[in-house]
Amino acid sequence: MTTTASERSGALHELGLDGQNQATIGRLLATGNIGRAEEGDGGRMHARIRIVPDQLIWDPSVLVLPHGGHLDIEFVNDDQNTHCALVPSNGDSQWMWLPNYSRGTMSVTLDGPGYYWFSSNIGNDEGRGLIGAIVVRGDVPESARLDRPQQPRP
Amino acid sequence: MTDIQDRTDIEYKEAPPAVDFGSLTTAAGTAPPVVQGVTYERILDARSEPQNWLTYYGAYDGQRYSPLDEISTENVVRITPAWVFSFSPHGLHAGQSTYAFETCPIVVEGVMYVSGWDGWVWALDAKTGQLLWQYKHAIPFDVSLCCGNVNRGVAVANGKVFVCTLNAHVVALDASTGECLWDVTSGDVRAGESLTVAPLVVKDRVVVGSSGGEFGVRGHLDAYDLETGERVWRCYTIPKPGEPGSETWPQEGEAWARGGGNGWITGTFDPETNLLYWGTGNPAPDFDGEVRPGDNLYTDSVIAVDADTGEIRWHYQCTPHDLWDYDSNMECILFEQDGRKLLAHFDKNGYCFILDRTNGERVRIFPFVDRITWGEISPDGQVTARIYPDKEGEEVHFYPGPAGAKEWTHAAYSPTTELFYVPVQDTGATVARRRREFKESIPYWGAAVTVDAKDMAGSVSAFNASGEEVWRWRNDLPMCASVLATAGDLVFAGTPSGKFVALDARSGELLWQFNCGSGHHSSPITYSVEGKQYIAVPVGWGAWVEGFLPGMMGGPHGQAMFVFALPEGQDSSGGR
């Protein structure tokens, strides 16, 4: 039996898939909130991502960027345990401690389009739910596109 | 943004600042400035400095041959691991089940430059294995990859390391620090394009070829200015309507626009002809030829491209109107015979093509694998197709399978023995045509495909330029890795089970072997530091295993650079 998109959040909750130690031991991935990065002057983007107490989930767990470029993320750990953030970035992935009740800002650079996973790569934070996605919208520059007529997409 | 409010009951502390993840390793941070002096002129004469491996094939001629001879048939039995560089990623990355360590290392004056899967580049001390610096390009999880998360190597020149990324960027790094100097978007990931090729530096340009033939893109080669990243030329491998070769595509419709023909393996170069010799990939859709009647130029071809302008000067098509996925990407080895400038190309379709590289004239064609049932190519070049997917849903079985009698992994040629050493795959496949509508970024094969997991064989086979098989070292699994020939009269090759072997170049006798713990699908090299010879082989099984050896789908991935040398004077002090 399947559910419609509008029924999905209700079904996740009813089945205990949207929390810690209910149906699953951890939190099923990609069941959290969706947020949008805000764009400042010059196209630089920023966002805030929290760790929800006792839920081992990023909020938002899916962060959507309008385009590739530079992104400042303020991480806030509202949890009573220590976690960290490992986030892809051109040059090298960025990593920071997130001790209990701490906040800090990380800057990353990502190409678009596509999506990237980030996580807290200690213990099994990832399996318990602390994996999130950064989605980069947009298209490649015109100079990088194929010289051919517009093609159908799925 | 979500509307989660700041908590007022918490007095937050400032988290420690973010750091580069690579700073939490033993990386020294910098490498000696050895690439500053690497010029086009030095690469032209690369074989005169055998301590280095300056370009993808070791030299522009693609021979994968080294004049180093400290390690020889007499003493190879004594070589042992000098050091191992092992790497494993954190978090999730694209192609988690299909990544492979396919690279070919570059070595300059004791520094090794290595690309990994998923955007990694490392500089290593080639004597000790010490990590000097690392670069990581962030690769989207959802890039379109037909054949795994792979990269085949870097190029170096003018103080820079050049690398391609899976999201179709070309990046130039400072060879001393790993810092990005320029980054250009070369292809369209929404169209299914990617880049897996090792770049080739020629003159003041770096040349790359695109990937994505299984997604119905239009293949191309591109040349970028070494210093600025500005694109100097683009050479499409599928002609537009009205261009030469367009008569080999349907005049109605847009089959040409989805025609494939990608140049995803590095070409070779002859400065005297000023031509790049580049192999092109399969037409798209791979197996459904009815939607693209005609020869489908310049797919499955050797193309000779003017290095200055990107124009195709001549071509030779190895499999016209391909219905078997027989890319011709594999190397074109440049050599001379009887004063004639030739090239040798061992093709997926099971035949070797010896061509006059000045004009593309056919000199000789000969088969190099036991089982060829798809069709036949006569010595005068006539191609007769016999078994191919035709009727919708009707299965046919043919040899070689779509990975070919030899995949992209490279043969070698020794000017000492005048023999070619070829990694051979003898595996069949069952294919049924299944037509599908083209949609951008969705696989466009036009068939259901299962490759045999039984009744297969492999070998390293030695041929002379006349097409006579001189010896064969048999393996019970297909050979899926490049081979290396040296002046020590040795041929090195890796097996899918993990063995790295040294063979006598004149007889094929097995002289030495080492179990590296994971299958080989890369290109080994040799170099020397302070006069001591080393053999380096990247080990890490994966990529298109379902295509070239599904019987080893469960084989361990592995991800390590093994380096071997004679035991005297080894220094494994890398790390801290």
Describe it for me?
- The complex is a heterodimer of chains A (154) and B (576).
- Chain A is mainly beta.
- Chain A has a domain of 106 residues: Immunoglobulin-like.
- Helix content of chain A is 10%, strand content 38%.
- In chain A, strands 2, 3, 4, 6 and 9 form a five-stranded mixed sheet that branches. Chain A has a four-stranded mixed sheet with strand order 1-5-11-10.
- Chain A is globular.
- The two termini of chain A are 25 Å apart.
- The mean pLDDT of chain A is 95.
- Chain B is an all-beta fold and 576 residues long.
- Chain B has a single domain, classed as 8 Propeller (Methanol Dehydrogenase, Chain A), CATH 2.140.10.10.
- Chain B is built from two helices and 40 strands.
- In chain B, the strands form ten sheets. Chain B has a five-stranded mixed sheet with strand order 3-34-35-36-37, with no helix packed on it.
- At the A-B interface, strand 1, strand 3, strand 6, strand 8 and strand 9 of A face strand 1, strand 2, strand 8 and strand 12 of B.
Short note summarizing the structure:
The complex is a heterodimer of chains A (154) and B (576). Chain A is mainly beta.
The strand count of chain A comes to 11
Largest sheet properties of chain A: 5 strands, mixed
Percentage of helical residues of chain B?
Answer: under 10%
Based on CA atoms alone, the radius of gyration of chain A comes out at 17 Å
- Cα-based radius of gyration of chain B, to the nearest Å: 23 Å
User: Number of folding domains of chain B?
Assistant: 1
Task: Please report the first level of CATH classification, the CATH class of chain B.
Answer: Mainly Beta
Number of helices, where a helix is a run of at least 4 consecutive DSSP H or I residues of chain A: 2
What is the straight-line distance between the termini of chain B?
Answer: 44 Å
How much of the polypeptide of chain B forms β-strand, as a percent range?
35-45%
* Strand proportion of chain A: 35-45%
Mean pLDDT of chain B: 97
Q: Which residue ranges of chain B are poorly predicted, with pLDDT under 50 across at least 5 consecutive positions?
A: none
Secondary structure class of chain A reads mainly beta
Q: What CATH architecture of chain B do you see?
A: 8 Propeller
Helix content of chain A: under 10%
The CA-CA distance between the termini of chain A, in Å, is 25 Å
Strand order of the largest sheet of chain B: 3-34-35-36-37
